[in-house]
Amino acid sequence: MLHLHDSAIETAPLLLGAVLRRGPVAVSITEVEAYEGTRDPASHAYRGPTARNRVMFGPAGHLYCYSMHGHTCCNVVCSPEGDAAAVLVRAGRVIDGLELARERRPGVKDAWLARGPGCLTRALGITMADYGTPLLNPTSEVTLTMGDEAVAEIASGPRVGVSRAHDRPWRFWVAGDASVSAYKRARVLRDD
């Protein structure tokens, strides 16, 4: 059974190797980023609850989706109700439904089918319609379960493309996995 901690920083490395599934396609999660809600200037919840981020303030185990650059990105809410910690799922290795993932991402080598948050949701078929899905319910459209294999080595470093709180090493990934996205530093903004 997957246990979601009160802190995104505690939960994030535990999600490596967990399985995110939507229908016939499943990925083993290989890269994540932690966002600590109102305590984290890079979080969508930093300024408090809004219509966009409301699910982040609900109970743990739900899917927080948002759209960026025309892509859907997905997060696992991991905080108690009223708080807003969440973990962005950045990348994964397709372990089931490979043919369908290839159809959704034509011309891409298998290791990169779910490399990057927008590519991951496209390979899985996750859309904004999945916002708020209870991930730990086995009958949900999108589910999250523990993986069968232990992760051998976990690396950590700065989050990708974050302009605020950019120096926090809250990105975690499976060391040496080809599905992990490339690090891209964003233009740095002041944290005020």
UniProtKB/TrEMBL annotation:
Species of origin: Gulosibacter molinativorax
Family recorded in the similarity comment: Belongs to the DNA glycosylase MPG family.
UniProt-listed PANTHER family: DNA-3-METHYLADENINE GLYCOSYLASE
Ribonucleoprotein found in the keyword field: no
Record EC number: 3.2.2.-
Pfam families to which the protein is assigned, alphabetical: Pur_DNA_glyco
SUPFAM superfamilies: FMT C-terminal domain-like
Keywords attached to this entry: DNA damage, DNA repair, Hydrolase
Protein name, as recorded: Putative 3-methyladenine DNA glycosylase
EC top class named in words: hydrolase
Recorded superkingdom: Bacteria
NCBIfam families the UniProt entry points to: 3mg, PRK00802.1-3
